[in-house]
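Structure tokens please, single chain.
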Amino acid sequence: MATKPPSHGGTFQPLRHRSGTLRDRLHGYTKQTLGAGGSLNDAVALPPGESCAGWVAVHAIDFYNDVSTIWAVMAEDPYLDSFRPGEGFPSGVEYRWSEGTGRDATTVSVSAPVYIEKVLQWIADQINDETKFPDDDDEAEALRVFQTPQFAALCGQIFRRLFRVYGIIYSSFFGTLEALQMAPHLNTCFKHFMFFCTEFGLLPEREMEPLEVLVKPIRKQYHLAKGK
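Here you go.
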């Protein structure tokens, strides 16, 4: 029996953007657009004159919050104990997680729920590191960090791992979320995530193949709306 992953215990606290900072200002664009009934295409589009790197950084945090809120609903479900290490999605995929660096690095096979917990904790650690995701009053310094190749690579890894978490949730937990009347929220969050990833080309095609049945119609909606 798989070890039950550390649980949010239903008390997940979203990661915030400090008031008056670049992150907070960019986050406000999306809130204003969706709050005013704007389209998802408008909500994901880069605001005029703003940094693309900063825009991606803010959305990495917001999408992490979306996924973590959904997972917090599942974290106390006894069903999680039924998952065994090595059983991934799609069939034949094995989830592995590496801890440590250099000679001390170890890689272990983990169950799907444990993988999700480790991904979310890893993302939270990156975001809470001010050297990687600055959130102070110095916009120029924040942009300097966001525009480095290292940050672009980090964000790419974050978005790919969030996509894999969505894959696990849809393949293994959709029925449970549907019973909890959470399916519409899940679908809305995933659609927003996919519109953004499509807008900025953040996911390799091979990464999306396991969820093609869900991804294809969403991307079609994105392109149809974009063409209007």
